[in-house]
Design brief:
Helix 9 packs parallel to helix 12, helix 11 packs across helix 12 and helix 12 crosses helix 13. Strand 9, helix 8 and strand 10 form a beta-alpha-beta unit. Helices cover 42% and strands 14% of the residues. The chain starts with 5 loop residues before the first strand and ends in a 5-residue tail after the last strand. The protein contains 17 helices and 14 strands. The strands form three sheets. Strands 3-2-1-4-7-8-9-10 form an eight-stranded mixed β-sheet, sandwiched between helices. Strands 12-11-13-14 form a four-stranded parallel β-sheet, sandwiched between helices.
Length: 416
């Protein structure tokens, strides 16, 4: 029998909602909390507010069973999981993390805390953030003791367990992926381990909170550096008139080489953001990590320059921009380089832009305010004299080569 009868999840986005649903599917009473009334109402109606394979059926089941409820206000529980955004905010030359959502979540938990409760930070955060959560709670609840005050004897246990899932495969990976569980004390880690063992089948490794915080950042910085290497190679190949995808395929025949693929840049809520969390707190040491971020952040401008070069050769440029999401076959536009590229092309008035993104029904406001509209794939490719493939959605891969033969084609993904 689990010692956790009720779990509260604060933040019902791409991580919080699937996590809440999986706990509910395993018999735990779950209250999900979000500041967006639309999100709360949609979930209580038995529907997710974003696309993810199999999530709609799971939400419907757990809401209808009464195991999952969504609210805008927190209520008492045995465990509290913070799964709110940690976006970047501009701060000089080095973007810094905005931890205001984490801090607000901690303050919302404080009034309902009781002796024996567990607080877990899942949001990806700079090293030391879990300790900061403890200090916020301690400052608001002097009647309770916390790990930084009382060590193993603390009344409230606090841990960091970073999410480690890929949009499009969240429900599979949240259950089966290995988890890193970092406690502010040994007891905190063991208590958190007990919570995740309710549904996690993957290996769970216990460590300290600071190590867990840096582990998540390290995973994404590693991939960012590898992608930056591929993107830099592709620009070298461009100059030398070599196919970068063929080059990388050949190099990867070496048993100890695994170069990732170049693209239009790096997007998503993790890789494009998390490495800065290391750089901002370690500016003197994180030179390679910073360089990788700068290479990948410069990639959209490189792609735009290629489009402009094609457009100058045309009297009336019509550019089909294929894809807006940050990766294939998802509706996730967060930090998407494709969106940034379209915005820059529109601002520079390179010609008529035909936007195609089959996974959304409405353009984000930042694009619709520029007068852009969604278009049908076949119509856009037929009309365009420049075809720009930004995302390698499966629905884009089967294209009539005869239609493309008299057009400028810029394939940022090596799909064609």
């Amino acid at each position: 029998m689990s010692s956790f009868e009720k779990v509260a999840v604060i933040g019902l986005g791409y991580i919080g909602l699937p996590t809440a649903a999986v706990f509910a599917e395993n018999g735990i009473d779950v209250v999900g909390v979000d500041i967006d009334q639309r999100v709360v109402d949609t979930i209580n109606d038995g529907r997710p507010h974003f696309g993810e394979p199999n999530l709609d059926a799971l939400i419907r089941r757990v809401v209808e069973s009464g195991k999952l409820r969504a609210r805008m206000e927190l209520e008492p529980a045995d465990a509290f999981i913070i799964a709110v955004p940690t976006p970047l905010r501009d701060h000089g030359e080095t973007p810094a993390p905005d931890l205001s959502f984490v801090e607000a979540a901690a303050r919302s938990i404080a009034p309902v805390l009781k002796n024996g409760d567990l607080v877990i930070l899942e949001s990806t955060s700079p090293v030391g953030t879990t300790q900061n959560v403890a200090e916020i709670l301690a400052g608001l609840r002097s009647d309770l003791t916390f790990p930084h005050q009382s060590g193993e004897m603390a009344m409230v246990q606090i841990a960091h367990c970073p999410e480690r899932v890929l949009p499009g495969r969240i429900l599979e990976e949240v259950v089966n992926n290995p988890r890193v569980i970092g406690g502010l004390t040994r007891k905190c880690a063991q208590r958190a381990l007990g919570l995740y063992r309710i549904f996690v089948r993957g290996d769970c490794r216990v460590t300290m909170a600071r190590t867990a915080e840096l582990a998540k950042l390290t995973e994404n910085a590693y991939r960012d550096v590898n992608i930056a290497f591929a993107n830099e190679l592709s620009q070298i190949c461009e100059r030398l008139k070599i196919n970068p995808w063929e080059l990388i395929e050949l190099a990867n025949l070496h048993p100890r080489v695994n170069i990732l693929q170049p693209g239009p840049g790096v997007g998503g809520h993790c890789i494009a953001v998390d490495p800065w969390f290391i750089v901002v707190t370690n500016p003197g040491e994180a030179k390679l990590i910073r360089a990788a971020r700068e290479i990948n952040d410069a990639r959209p401008e490189f792609i735009c320059s290629k489009v402009k070069a094609c457009s100058t050769a045309l009297k009336h440029p019509i550019v089909a921009c294929l894809g807006l999401s940050y990766k294939r076959d998802v509706d996730d536009l967060r930090e998407s380089p494709a969106v940034e590229i379209v915005k820059r092309l529109a601002a520079d008035k390179v010609g008529e832009l035909l936007i195609v993104e089959p996974h959304i029904s409405v353009l984000p406001r930042e694009l619709s305010d520029l007068g852009l509209e969604l278009n049908d794939f076949d119509m856009a490719v037929e009309r365009a004299n420049v075809v720009l493939l930004l995302v390698d959605h499966m629905s884009f891969l089967q294209v009539d080569r005869n239609i493309l033969k008299d057009k400028f084609v810029i394939d940022t993904r090596g799909a064609w």
